[in-house]
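Handoff note, outgoing to incoming analyst
You'll be picking up this chain. Sequence as last confirmed:
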Amino acid sequence: MTKGTRYLITLLVLAVLIVSCGQPAPTPTSAPTSVPPTATPVPLATPVPTAVPKPEQLALGDETFAQNCASCHGGGFTPLALTGYRTAEKLYDYIRARMPPGNPSVISDARRYAVTAYLLSKAGLIKDDVTISADNAASVTFGDPPAPAGESQVVSGQKSFDAYCVSCHRAGIQASAIKRYRTALGLFQYLRTSMPPGNPDRVPEKSSYDIVAYMLSRAGLLKEGQLVSADTAQSISFE
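Most recent structure output, in case you need it:
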């Protein structure tokens, strides 16, 4: 090898070393970081609803009704069946005199008032927090429940008939028996003074007119849409 060749090779080696030194050192690759798995959230337990306890008198009334009344009146009473008493005192007096049939004395006064409150509360005629006693029974009043919007008088009359009359007149009333009263007013006056037997004041006046309309309609003695009221009863005749 000549001197010039060795010189050229030396220059090439130096050039390679210079280029290599100018390159940045490679960045060390870090090991992948492991991500811990996301914990699955545990659903919170749904709280069990707690029943609202009944006021003490209503609880006693419920218990007394179940023990002494439910065997005959298991379905309870509709508001319509109770409004005829008009006051808690009159309903209490009826319970005291007649319920349970044949042995009304088996129930104490406190339980009679409790049953009175229970019945009226369950029918929506008084609020649950009303306590009934001898001191306020006469002042706890309730009127006729309003008929649903659009309900005809005949339909209202059927409901009143079912509440006050059907226990004795399940088969209804024959047209021949109704005609003897001659007018709707005559039939109304009979109902107001005689029905139900022994307690005609129990039925509100409006309900009595509704019952007349229902009876006449069922007997074919009332025109469709004709109303029975204090203003029209005399003029509705069926000789």
